[in-house]
Design brief:
CATH architecture of the largest domain: 3-Layer(aba) Sandwich
Number of strands: 9
Strand order of the largest sheet: 2-1-3-4-5
Helix content: 40-55%
Structural class: alpha/beta
Distance between the termini: 33 Å
CATH superfamily of the largest domain: Glucose-6-phosphate isomerase like protein, domain 1
Oligomer: single chain
CATH topology of the largest domain: Rossmann fold
Number of helices: 13
Number of domains: 2
Order of helices and strands: HHEHEEHEHEHHHEHEHEHEHH
CATH class of the largest domain: Alpha Beta
Radius of gyration: 20 Å
Strand content: 15-25%
């Protein structure tokens, strides 16, 4: 896992090359909506991509992490099905539903049943490198989302330069990122983690939560501001000193949201002294969010290391899949 996290900048650049070489059919369209379907480490890329391009996207982009798709999916829809292994049963079910509704389907996978279906039915698809935990291959699945969206006329091509620049920054700042991550980890071990961010960057919080769940073997939760201020804030009446708060912050956060964060900190401080703000770094939204993703990945790894647990082990998920496989 350590080598895979360390390789994130390189993976981003390799993913750009894969996307440039991908051969997709004529785009058709125009499309009225885009739905991304995927689970876990395969699904988070779609959520991050949708978040990063929401201001320029020419139609709505929604992410569904389930067996089914929304009722509005039809022949004017583009459905991006992402399963790293190619065998995620929920995503395969959603992909079949998309085909039955006449949607244009593009698959992102390393192989498995999804690739077999894509080839057999002549579907657009991009093949990414296999053989690793899906959550550690985020760079590949994430970058292909942008290439697919661009090919089908949903976004422009500015993402390529933004990702390349971000990868260079992450390489240059690698040791500083690891140092910051280790310092933050030392403040989180033994605490119950809660993660907050602005709604426009919530996918980064989700990624961090997922990494802490899988790599560090820890329960934690996240919420987005301002929505959190309309419910969970009251729940802090049950807060205590064992809670550690991480607030992801960006210079482009809404002015009123920044005010909310400052007020919120004062409320949290009544219950815990463990409040940690983490400011993103970089010249673009892509760079800033990828910076926090990489830093969060390192935190999850260091946390596992300090606990003495294997960050790659997911026996309970494999057990669940095995039980489900017994019932067809």
């Amino acid at each position: 896992m350590q080598q895979l996290i360390e390789g994130f900048p390189r993976q981003l650049k390799e993913a750009l090359e894969i996307g440039r070489k991908a051969t997709l059919k004529a785009p058709g369209g125009p499309y009225g909506n885009v739905v991304v379907t995927g689970l876990g480490g395969s699904g988070i890329g779609g959520r991050i991509a949708a978040q990063l391009v929401h201001k320029e996207a020419k139609c709505p982009i929604e992410v569904y992490n389930n067996y089914y798709l929304p009722g509005y999916v039809n022949h004017k829809s583009l459905v991006i099905a992402c399963s790293y292994s190619g065998n995620t049963e929920e995503t395969l079910a959603a992909m079949e539903q998309a085909l039955s509704k006449g949607a244009r389907v593009c698959a992102i996978t390393s192989g498995g049943t999804m690739l077999e279906i894509a080839k057999a039915k002549g579907l657009d698809h991009i093949v990414i490198p296999g053989g690793n935990p899906p959550r550690a291959m985020l760079a590949y699945s994430l970058v292909q989302q942008f290439f697919v969206l661009h090919h089908f006329g949903i976004i422009g091509d500015g993402f390529e330069g933004a990702i390349k620049t971000a990868a260079l920054m992450l390489e240059h700042d690698k040791e500083d990122i690891k140092k910051a991550a280790l310092g933050l980890t030392e403040k989180l071990v033994g605490k119950r983690l809660v993660i907050y961010s602005e709604a426009n960057t919530e996918a980064v919080s989700i990624r961090f939560r997922q990494q802490v769940n899988e790599n560090s073997k820890e329960l934690c939760w996240h919420h987005a501001i301002p929505e959190m201020n309309h419910n969970e804030l009251v729940g802090w009446a049950g807060g205590d000193k064992d809670i550690a708060v991480v607030i992801f912050r960006h210079k482009e956060d809404h002015e009123r949201t920044q005010m909310r964060m400052e007020i919120n900190k004062g409320i949290f401080e009544k219950y815990t002294s463990h409040i940690h703000e983490v400011w993103s770094k970089g010249d673009t939204s892509f760079a800033r969010q990828l910076y926090l993703i990489n830093l969060g990945d390192w935190v999850s790894y260091y946390w596992a290391e300090k606990k003495g647990v294997d960050p790659t082990e997911i026996a309970v998920i494999n057990m669940l899949k095995g039980k489900l496989a017994e019932v067809k």
